Amino acid sequence: MAVNSVMNKKVRVSDNILLGLIYLSAFLAVGLLVGIICYVFYRGIGNLSLAFLVTEQSPTKGIMGIAGNIVNTLYIVILTLIVVTPIGVGGAIYLNEYAKPGRLVSTIEFTIEVLTGIPSIIFGLFGSVFFGQTLGLGYSMLTGSFTLTIMVLPLIAKNTQEALRTVPQSYRSGALGIGATKWYMIRTILLPSAMPGILTGIILAIGRIVGESAALLFTSGSGFYLPAPGFGYVRKLFESGGTLTIEMYLQMSKGQYDVAFAIACVLLILVLGLNFLTKVIANKFNVEKTK
Q1: pTM for the complete prediction?
Q2: What percent of the chain has pLDDT over 90?
Q3: Which of 2-11, 73-82, 100-109, 264-273 has the lowest mean pLDDT?
Q4: 187/184 Cα distance (integer angstroms)
Q5: Where residue 8 falls among pLDDT bands split at 50, 70, 90?
Q6: Contact 192, 288 (CB under 8 A)
Q7: Once rounded to an integer, what is the mean pLDDT over residues 143-148?
């Protein structure tokens, strides 16, 4: 008598074909990433030098350097994260822990979804008109940062909300049952438990900030000068500043492909470095959570 079980089930040819297609898709995805990275480094690594990285660009003297663009990129990333992280995380906490399900919550979540799909060029147009003209910030780092804040807000809010949902309900019940206040429970239990998911949203936000160009062309401009010492670091917030992606676009438009690929190498190194650092922090929280 034959027993119909998983152990003696006949393997069909179609199953093997589908399994092969799945593996092929996975290898294609990894291969595309590796291929792009290798090609960019092949074209650009030979044009990288210490002088190229630490020198300020000077068209009048014929000097090509991206030190100012690197500083501008870090300005944009840090400023945007300082503004968007409290708003995104706070909004997710409200939606997940405080708000009662209803029309208001549905409207907010629908708005977040819509913001995710709006083209970046529209964000740039809005930021230029509202932050640049209406608020009088002009072409500045603040205008670019505020515009990118609206762009990456859905990423952080959505990932934080999903991370909070993965925390078991028993954590909440246990904390509240021993007399902890709701905010104390959120601050000491929920947020540390959800931190890896929150950091994932921050990683995605950093990737979009660093790689954005269309919106920043309308808002932060293309200035490439380093900030002056002292108060100049504060004054830089109100001045035009082009990021690495803006400078790469400008070099491509001039036909300077070697310089553009060199800037692309710096961008890849910067993004991979930031992602690696964030992953290390996320793994640290995972280790502490399992202890």
Answers
A1: 0.83
A2: 23
A3: 2-11
A4: 5
A5: low
A6: yes
A7: 93
Asked whether 189 and 140 are in contact (CB, 8 A), the reply is: no
Backbone angles phi, psi at 225, to 5 degrees: -90, 145
The gap from C-alpha 268 to its chain's centroid, in whole angstroms, comes to 13
How is residue 177 written in tokens? 């049952």
DSSP string, the chain: -----STTPPPPHHHHHHHHHHHHHHHHHHHHHHHHHHHHHHHHGGG--HHHHHSPPBTTTTB---HHHHHHHHHHHHHHHHHHHHHHHHHHHIIIIISPSSHHHHHHHHHHHHHHHS-HHHHHHHHIIIIIIISS--SSHHHHHHHHHHHHHHHHHHHHHHHHHHS-HHHHHHHHHTT--HHHHIIIIIHHHHHHHHHHHHHHHHHHHHH--HHHHHHT----PPPPSTTHHHHGGGS----HHHHHHHHHHTT-HHHHHHHHHHHHHHHHHHHHHHHHHHHHHHHHHH-
Which structure tokens are listed for 168?
């078991």
- Tell me the per-residue pLDDT of 230-240, one tens digit each, with 9 for 90 and over: 788 888 889 88
Contact 263, 64 (CB under 8 A): no
Q: What is the rounded CA–CA span in Å between residue 153 and residue 161?
A: 12
- Minimal CA–CA distance to 66: which of 256, 274, 273? 256
Q: Which of 124, 274, 148, 259 is nearest to 199 (CA)?
A: 274
Structure tokens at 258: 């070697």
CA pair distance 80, 123, nearest whole angstrom: 14
Under 8 Å between Cβ of 112 and 96: no
CA distances from 42 to 95, 255, 262 (A): 47, 18, 10
- Residue 118: count other Cβ atoms within 10 Å of its Cβ: 13
